[in-house]
């Protein structure tokens, strides 16, 4: 009887798996269309120098706007592109577009670009990015690559090589979502970073938790001790901004300072923030 029940469980599982597989196949087909018709584009979220309150750069965040006007978030389609073997092509498409857009900003404005853990196991990543920058004409000093800690665990040897390629070429590396991975501290001394980005989960809780407050202070001190810049992400409240300024956190990002926006709005943002500063 036990054997029979077991078999029935498997049988019951198959339709659900097929449905899942079907969904995946459909999504991959939609992704292919979206890439072909240019429906996936980078949006740009500003990050500000908290000392001078001036714009320091924009982070490119991929957006897929469907023909019906619905947005599919990157956490839903980046993994699909990876599974479908389309991530290299998608990244090149997004990166080329982002470099071109960055050419329309003031020449001291940084472009920050995210790469996922899977992409860091691509030995040619550095070369691919450098080739595109060369073609578009964006100087390497204007680029920063954001990686997460999990990227360094997946295929550590290759990741290290890729990061060294980028660093040698003069591209800065930022450690994203800092504090949420397993091995932050050992990674900090194993690799060369120029920036850590404190994950927004810390920024959004330190006001109500004394412990979180101590953790944020320690992270800022750690970054400064290592001689790297510290960015706080997810700033939504003026009180959070003020606190981070008091802590001498270098840079800030979040809805309070600016949302991810298409390039024409980013250009408008640049000119209006210059107006405010003058
Ligand atoms: P991330 O790099 O940590 O990006 C920050 C995420 O937080 C973005 O979500 C952004 O829209 C959101 N955010 C920014 N400020 C605030 C705030 O004040 N409050 C709240 N609640 N959220 C805020 P998004 O755009 O959905 O991106 C999610 C993740 O997807 C990114 O996390 C990044 O890891 C990844 N991603 C985005 N674009 C790309 C891409 O082109 N390539 C790759 N490989 N990954 C990407
Ligand atoms: Mg990021
Ligand atoms: Mg982040
Ligand atoms: Mg994050």
UniProtKB/TrEMBL annotation:
This is Diguanylate cyclase (GGDEF) domain-containing protein. The keyword Membrane applies. The lineage of its organism: Bacteria, Pseudomonadati, Pseudomonadota, Alphaproteobacteria, Hyphomicrobiales. GO terms for molecular function: cyclic-guanylate-specific phosphodiesterase activity. Keywords: Membrane, Transmembrane, Transmembrane helix. Residues 24-274 form the EAL domain. The chain holds residues 235 to 512 of 512 of the full protein. It comes from Rhizobium lusitanum.
């Amino acid at each position: 009887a036990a054997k029979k029940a077991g078999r029935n469980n498997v049988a019951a599982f198959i339709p659900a798996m097929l449905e899942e597989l079907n969904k995946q196949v459909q999504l991959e087909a939609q992704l292919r269309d979206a890439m072909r018709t240019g429906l996936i584009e980078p949006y740009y979220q500003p990050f500000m120098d908290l000392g001078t309150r001036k714009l320091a750069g924009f982070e490119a965040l991929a957006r897929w706007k469907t023909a019906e006007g619905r947005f599919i978030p990157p956490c839903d389609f980046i993994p699909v592109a990876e599974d479908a073997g389309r991530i290299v092509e998608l990244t090149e498409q997004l990166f080329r577009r982002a470099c071109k857009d960055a050419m329309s900003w003031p020449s001291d404005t940084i472009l920050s670009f995210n790469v996922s853990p899977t992409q860091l196991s691509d030995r040619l990543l550095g070369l691919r990015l450098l080739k595109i920058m060369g073609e578009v004409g964006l100087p390497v000093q204007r680029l920063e690559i954001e990686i997460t800690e999990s990227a360094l665990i997946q295929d550590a040897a290759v990741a290290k090589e890729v990061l060294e390629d980028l660093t040698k070429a003069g591209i800065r590396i930022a450690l994203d979502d800092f504090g949420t991975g397993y091995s932050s501290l050992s990674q900090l001394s194993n690799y060369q970073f120029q920036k850590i980005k404190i994950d927004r989960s810390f920024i959004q809780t330190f006001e109500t938790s004394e412990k979180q407050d101590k953790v944020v202070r320690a992270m800022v001190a750690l970054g400064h001790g290592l001689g790297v810049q510290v960015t706080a992400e997810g700033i939504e409240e003026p009180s959070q901004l003020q606190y981070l300024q008091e802590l001498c956190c270098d840079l800030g990002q979040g809805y309070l300072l600016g949302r991810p926006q298409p390039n024409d709005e980013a250009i408008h943002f640049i000119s209006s923030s210059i107006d405010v500063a003058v």
